[in-house]
């Protein structure tokens, strides 16, 4: 019986390609891979966005607790940040785990935790009023073309620490290191009116005792220092016209630190003829805005704004 011959090898040109490894198959599989990659990228983007939104909400809860005085109930905090109590509670649980928030076992209120206090203390150590006020001085000088300076309370009285002049400055006998009077300068009057310090009152009494009749006539006859202080406290700023320096007017506003104490005073001055020193004038309003901004950077929480809800940031998250 004859054995059938073994067929010769099939020429490569006639071989049938493996469908799984053909170029056409590879091309056909690309849309599937592309769609899968797009889905993966979209999922990653969505998850990243959710993480960012979660972090923003967590920070909103923490900042809300701080702005409510560091202590609040769940419902009060939720109302302040504009989120549901259930959602705020979830974030509070995470913040408690991180030591940023604690809960009072007796009242069930939430308070800032030890980690939050450490962050705040570190920030306060960096809060230098003169450094923070410097950009404000430059902005006021450039926008209003007026002379500006910041002063702090020294052992001899209000002392100028930083001084900025416009391109065409007025001639004044005041420079860095100059000590301003408490009774006759707007700078001094802000310190006198808003600082509860017996040393400051003693300096003011000394100034009054050595003042000539023309200066004393500008003050209340019955209670010169007391009436001046009450006026500054009501306005929370001060202005003078031809009082300390003839031909010069000035307006001043306080900088408060995180304890609510006046730590520095911003002042703008100019020649009386072309300088509006009224607290409600354009210069006075700009100065007060800058002082308020600097105070916020120093950690001051205005009691009037403490319980106002934050501005909307684009809806709930």
Account of the protein in words:
It is a single chain. This protein has 317 residues and is of the alpha+beta class. It has 2 domains: 43-122, Winged helix-like DNA-binding domain superfamily/Winged helix DNA-binding domain (Arc Repressor Mutant, subunit A); 127-297, GAF domain (Beta-Lactamase). Helix content is 47%, strand content 14%. The protein is built from 10 helices and 8 strands. It has helices at 23-67, 74-81, 85-97, 114-125, 129-144, 186-194, 198-210, 213-216, 224-235, 282-297; strands spanning 71-72, 101-103, 110-112, 147-153, 158-164, 238-241, 248-256, 262-271. It has a 5-stranded antiparallel beta sheet, sandwiched between helices. Strands 1-3-2 form a 3-stranded antiparallel beta sheet. A hairpin with a 4-residue loop joins β4 (147-153) and β5. The longest helix has 45 residues, at 23-67. The chain is elongated and about 85 Å long. The termini are far apart. The model is unreliable at 6-21, 24-28 and 311-317 (pLDDT under 50).
């Amino acid at each position: 019986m004859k054995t059938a011959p073994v067929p010769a090898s099939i020429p490569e040109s006639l071989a049938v390609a493996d469908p799984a490894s053909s170029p056409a198959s590879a091309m056909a599989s690309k849309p599937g891979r592309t769609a899968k990659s797009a889905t993966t990228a979209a999922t990653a983007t969505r998850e990243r966005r959710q993480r960012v939104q979660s972090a923003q909400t967590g920070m909103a809860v923490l900042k809300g607790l701080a702005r409510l005085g560091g202590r609040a109930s769940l419902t009060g905090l939720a109302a302040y940040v504009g989120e549901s109590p259930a959602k705020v509670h979830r974030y509070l649980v995470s913040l408690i785990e991180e030591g940023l928030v604690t809960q009072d076992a007796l009242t069930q209120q939430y308070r800032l935790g030890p980690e939050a206090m450490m962050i705040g203390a570190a920030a306060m150590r960096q809060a230098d009023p003169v450094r923070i006020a410097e950009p404000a001085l430059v902005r006021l000088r450039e926008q209003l073309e007026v002379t500006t300076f910041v002063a702090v309370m020294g052992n001899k009285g209000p002392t100028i620490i930083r001084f900025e002049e416009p391109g065409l400055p007025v001639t004044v006998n005041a420079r860095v290191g100059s000590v301003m009077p408490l009774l006759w300068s707007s700078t001094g009057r802000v310190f006198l009116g808003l600082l509860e310090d017996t040393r400051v009152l003693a300096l003011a009494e000394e100034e009054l005792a050595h003042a000539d009749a023309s200066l004393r006539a500008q003050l209340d006859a019955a209670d010169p220092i007391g009436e001046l202080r009450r006026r500054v406290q009501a306005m929370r700023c001060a202005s003078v016209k031809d009082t300390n320096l003839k031909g010069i007017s000035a307006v001043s506003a306080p900088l408060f630190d995180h304890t609510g104490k006046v730590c520095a005073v911003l002042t703008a001055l100019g020649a009386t003829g072309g300088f509006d020193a009224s607290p409600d004038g354009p210069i006075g309003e700009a100065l007060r805005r800058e002082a308020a901004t600097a105070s916020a950077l120093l950690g001051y929480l205005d009691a009037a704004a403490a319980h106002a809800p934050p501005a909307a940031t684009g809806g709930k998250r």
